[in-house]
């Protein structure tokens, strides 16, 4: 199928990971190379905030820091001052089956750097790797609670992407349920595995969608990308749980994430963005591990979600994935940055 800017006709593609449809309508956009954020993230001024080093007393309680007990910390994991779920409620003693639960759960903040003006993409790959390892340590702690079913790690960068603090940080939410999009993803991947005997994500790599490879990971624009210039970073090796990431691979993953964030900033005018780590439920059974494969989804905030999307669950993407991948492949990142 010849799909790109050479073919201006709209297409409807099946997203086989979440089992939904995406409409590609290039007539609604300019050339892919001209796509820029209309509301770029403001550069951080050299201000001070509760997340800055020396202001620890202004924050919610600390869970741990890296290095441990070091006043010159590099990363802090703290409780969210305004949590969506409460860790002080009684923990459910059984698997939820009804339509009402107490709001037990955990909502944490990962402060990625002690310095206000430093963003995640400014850090070196080993430093970003250390952030990933802080995620894995906290997920392993949360897994000790039998009632916690799923842990979502996510980052909101920029006010229009949902960030209430400009200091570089990400969040971890531990839920007593398996969210519907996770259930849909697992069901769709199970269907593929039942039909083919293979993990869908293990076979997702296609040359015309690839952005950049590394030894153990690769980045691509998915075939049915929900959003323009959406990027996935995928392990080449089969792994169901993100929190099994080891220190060596964390550094490599940090290098590839840094490259993607810098390419996105250069090409798309430093847009607000979100990233989400899609992993498996904590207490997965053995068969689930065969077809579940974690990955990171990065979504630059370039277009809004309107009535059609809210009403149908279908999304309209004005940029063909092949075109987005080609543009991102060709972005030249200065080595000095």
TrEMBL record:
<dbReference type="InterPro" id="IPR001937">
    <property type="entry name" value="GalP_UDPtransf1"/>
</dbReference>
<keyword id="KW-0808">Transferase</keyword>
<feature type="binding site">
    <location>
        <position position="49"/>
    </location>
    <ligand>
        <name>Zn(2+)</name>
    </ligand>
</feature>
<feature type="binding site">
    <location>
        <position position="116"/>
    </location>
    <ligand>
        <name>Zn(2+)</name>
    </ligand>
</feature>
<dbReference type="GO" id="GO:0008270">
    <property type="term" value="F:zinc ion binding"/>
</dbReference>
<keyword id="KW-0862">Zinc</keyword>
<dbReference type="InterPro" id="IPR053177">
    <property type="entry name" value="ADP-glucose_phosphorylase"/>
</dbReference>
<dbReference type="Pfam" id="PF01087">
    <property type="entry name" value="GalP_UDP_transf"/>
</dbReference>
<protein>
    <recommendedName>
        <fullName>Galactose-1-phosphate uridyl transferase N-terminal domain-containing protein</fullName>
    </recommendedName>
</protein>
<keyword id="KW-0548">Nucleotidyltransferase</keyword>
<dbReference type="GO" id="GO:0008108">
    <property type="term" value="F:UDP-glucose:hexose-1-phosphate uridylyltransferase activity"/>
</dbReference>
<feature type="active site" description="Tele-UMP-histidine intermediate">
    <location>
        <position position="169"/>
    </location>
</feature>
<feature type="binding site">
    <location>
        <position position="167"/>
    </location>
    <ligand>
        <name>Zn(2+)</name>
    </ligand>
</feature>
<keyword id="KW-0119">Carbohydrate metabolism</keyword>
<dbReference type="InterPro" id="IPR036265">
    <property type="entry name" value="HIT-like_sf"/>
</dbReference>
<keyword id="KW-0479">Metal-binding</keyword>
<feature type="domain" description="Galactose-1-phosphate uridyl transferase N-terminal">
    <location>
        <begin position="10"/>
        <end position="179"/>
    </location>
</feature>
<dbReference type="InterPro" id="IPR005849">
    <property type="entry name" value="GalP_Utransf_N"/>
</dbReference>
<dbReference type="GO" id="GO:0006012">
    <property type="term" value="P:galactose metabolic process"/>
</dbReference>
<feature type="binding site">
    <location>
        <position position="52"/>
    </location>
    <ligand>
        <name>Zn(2+)</name>
    </ligand>
</feature>
């Amino acid at each position: 199928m010849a799909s790109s800017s050479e073919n201006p006709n709209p297409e409807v593609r099946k997203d086989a990971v979440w089992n939904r449809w995406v409409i590609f309508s290039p007539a609604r956009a300019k050339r892919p190379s001209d796509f820029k954020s209309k509301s770029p993230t403001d550069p951080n001024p050299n201000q001070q905030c509760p997340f800055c080093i020396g202001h620890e007393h202004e924050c919610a309680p600390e869970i741990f820091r890296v290095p441990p007990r070091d006043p010159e910390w590099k990363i802090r994991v703290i409780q969210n001052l305004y949590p969506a779920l409460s860790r002080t409620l009684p923990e459910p003693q059984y698997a939820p089956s009804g339509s009402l639960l107490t709001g037990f759960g955990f909502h944490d903040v990962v402060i990625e750097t002690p310095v206000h003006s430093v963003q995640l993409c400014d850090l070196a790959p080993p430093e970003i790797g250390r952030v990933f390892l802080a995620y894995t340590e906290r997920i392993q702690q949360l897994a000790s609670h039998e009632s916690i079913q799923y842990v979502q790690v996510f980052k909101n960068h920029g006010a229009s992407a949902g960030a209430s603090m400009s200091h570089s940080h990400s969040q971890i939410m531990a839920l007593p349920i398996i969210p519907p999009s996770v259930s849909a993803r697992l069901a769709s991947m199970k269907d593929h595995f039942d039909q083919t005997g293979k993990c869908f994500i293990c076979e997702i790599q296609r040359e015309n969608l690839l952005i950049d490879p590394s030894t153990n990971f690769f980045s691509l624009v998915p075939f049915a990308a929900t959003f323009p210039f959406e990027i996935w970073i995928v392990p080449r090796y089969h792994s169901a749980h993100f929190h099994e990431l080891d220190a060596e691979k964390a550094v490599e993953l940090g290098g590839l994430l840094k490259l993607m964030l810098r390419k996105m900033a250069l090409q798309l005018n430093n847009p607000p963005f979100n990233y989400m780590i899609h992993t498996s439920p904590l207490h997965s059974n053995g068969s689930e591990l065969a077809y579940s494969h974690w990955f990171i989804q990065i979504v630059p905030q370039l277009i809004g979600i309107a009535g059609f999307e809210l009403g149908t669950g279908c999304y309209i993407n004005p940029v063909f994935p092949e075109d987005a991948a080609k543009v991102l492949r060709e972005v030249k990142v200065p080595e000095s940055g």
